[in-house]
Write a structure and sequence with these properties.
The chain is built from 14 helices and 8 strands. With 301 residues, it is α/β, with parallel strands linked by helices. Helix 1 links the parallel strand 1 and strand 2. The termini are far apart.
Length: 301
């Protein structure tokens, strides 16, 4: 089966390579010509324009979009609409907001195009391990493209599924990433507590490896953490600055709208925001209030 991929960053390139190894034909486009040349050198076809990409795909075409959420997705869709034909399918494999996905699906359906949202997890490990795919959209195009999804997943019948109508894939991926925030925060806090217990001289790398086998907190995230500690056990050269790509915020917003208590995910998001505040004003305000009402010592810079 043939597939076009737009966006050849690490994830897009690795997806193309996994599909090629499974016997599928991939045509890829990226504004970075080095990326398209690399794709061609790997055995797929890298092209230098959307026109070339569409021209090299037989109808009905399927094009997988791997670009940043928001305007880049809308701009890419607008350009593809003028080049593609009714009956063709666009797949958004990025981390779009599910409400944007539903809007795009409705607009494209009115013009005869299919639109699938595919929440994609696996990162840089997807080439080797396969990708977890959470798919939303209409039944017919999803079933027609099953060979693509099965090839990208860890196994033909594992790690992927059609979870619901348009927007469902991105909604499930949003919650998936919110859960990820909480898991990472819990691990980080636990290791910080152990590091602070200096009289016990705990070896955090050793403990991470112990927990990998038999423990109820074992996970792939812990495996990756243990590997990272192997290379940098004291976290030398790292800043306490943690970005967020939006899904945690959207998850918290949905929880509020649905009257669902989600304190762990919410606090993990707040901690990421706080990590970016150097000598933050909030903590200084708390310090000065303690000094005002209780005469507590105020530490000055």
């Amino acid at each position: 089966m043939e597939l076009g991929i737009i966006g050849l960053g690490k994830m897009g390139f690795n997806m193309a390579e996994r599909l090629r190894l499974a016997g599928h034909t991939v045509v890829g486009f990226d504004f970075n010509q080095d990326a398209t040349a690399r794709l061609t050198a790997s055995g797929s076809l890298g092209v230098n324009s959307l026109e070339e990409l569409v021209a090299n795909l037989p109808a009905p075409r399927a094009v997988w979009i791997m670009v940043p959420a928001g305007d880049p997705v809308d701009q890419t869709i607008a350009k593809l609409e003028a080049l593609m034909q009714p009956g063709d399918t666009l797949i958004d494999g990025g981390n779009s907001n599910y409400k944007d996905t539903q809007r795009r699906h409705e607009a494209l359906a009115a013009k005869g195009f299919h639109y699938i949202d595919c929440g994609t997890s696996g990162g840089v490990w997807g080439l080797k391990e396969g990708y977890s795919l959470m798919i939303g959209g209409d039944k017919e195009p999803v079933e027609r493209l099953t060979p693509i999804f099965a090839a990208l997943a860890p196994a033909a019948n594992e790690g992927w599924g059609h979870v619901g109508p348009s927007g469902a894939g991105h909604f499930v991926k949003m919650v998936h990433n919110g859960i990820e925030y909480g898991l990472m925060q819990a691990y980080a806090e636990g290791f910080s507590i152990m590091k602070a217990k200096e009289p016990l001289h705990l070896d955090l790398t050793q403990i991470a490896h112990i927990w990998q086998k038999g423990s109820v907190v074992r996970s792939w995230l812990l495996d990756l953490t243990a590997g990272a500690l192997d290379h940098n056990p004291t976290l030398d050269g790292l800043e306490a600055w943690v970005p967020d790509s939006g899904e945690g915020r959207w998850t918290v917003t949905e929880a509020i709208d649905l009257n669902i208590s989600a304190p762990v995910i919410t606090e993990s998001l707040i901690r990421r925001l706080r990590s970016r505040e150097e000598n933050n004003f909030t903590d200084r305000m708390i310090s000065i209030m303690r000094g005002a009402f209780g005469g507590h010592e105020v530490k000055k810079a």
